[in-house]
Amino acid sequence: MSLVELLGEDLLRSEHCLRALTHRSVSSKNNERLEYLGDSLLGFFVANWLYHHFPSYPEGDLTRMRAHLVRKDTLAEIAREHNFADHLVLGAGELKSGGLRRSSILADALEALIGAVFITKGYESACEFIEKLYVTRFANIPTIDQLKDAKTRLQELLQSNNQSLPEYKIVEKHGKSGNETFSVQCVVENCQESFIGVGTSRRKAEQSAAEYAFVYLSNQN
């Protein structure tokens, strides 16, 4: 479904919605303030929806589910599904560098558009817009176990077997600051296998190594 179908031509062409789709590379009249507003509205709406649809879930599980639903990657995926790039206004430099495909720009525009709908049409309309954007995500929310990161799943697996927690050691580090690649080893007590993860940050490399370790050890049980 396109943005025109979601919002209607008149609302999409309104002053605030046009600004919501305007990147800061264009002018000072951009979508940053609307993004701030939309981010808050989205967080509240998702939290409220989860609270009422999962009445038996503890706070920690609800928080993990909300984080998954409002993370930048999820927002960018939704923006791509609705062809936000067809309506974005970017400066020449951003266009040349592939800004229309950049996840951060798409995610920010989605949040800004939520803010713009709120300013223009009010809270109920903003909620209806969010619900339309999230209808597929709400129907297919991953389980809590699926939402746990690899390090958490590995830690829980080891604890269930009365084993010590794993250690993570940097094996290699390449590149200059801001463009680095890390290789990290996950060391599991009494295990001779070597689990090496690679990532653009130490955290990502650790998660990768933990995933290898978790898959291997799960298959040993």
Features:
221 residues, mainly alpha, Ribonuclease iii, N-terminal Endonuclease Domain, Chain A, Double Stranded RNA Binding Domain, 2 domains, three-stranded antiparallel sheet, 12 helices, flat
Describe the fold and architecture.
The chain has 221 residues and is mainly alpha-helical. It folds into two domains: 3-147, Orthogonal Bundle (Ribonuclease iii, N-terminal Endonuclease Domain, Chain A), CATH 1.10.1520.10; 150-218, Double Stranded RNA Binding Domain, CATH 3.30.160.20. Helix content is 60%, strand content 9%. The chain has twelve helices and three strands; from the N terminus they run H-H-H-H-H-H-H-H-H-H-H-E-E-E-H. The chain has helices spanning 3-7, 9-12, 15-20, 32-53, 59-70, 72-81, 92-96, 103-121, 123-139, 144-147, 150-160, 202-218; strands spanning 167-174, 181-187, 195-199. Strands 1-2-3 form a three-stranded antiparallel beta sheet. The protein is flat and about 65 Å long.
In percent, how much strand structure appears in the residues?
Answer: 5-15%
State the CATH superfamily name of the largest domain: Ribonuclease III domain
Q: What is the CATH class name of the largest domain?
A: Mainly Alpha
Radius of gyration, in angstroms, nearest whole number: 21 Å
Short description:
This protein is mainly α.
Give the topology, please.
Blueprint: H1 3-7, H2 9-12, H3 15-20, H4 32-53, H5 59-70, H6 72-81, H7 92-96, H8 103-121, H9 123-139, H10 144-147, H11 150-160, E1 167-174, E2 181-187, E3 195-199, H12 202-218
Helix pairs in contact: 4-5, 4-8, 6-8, 8-9, 11-12
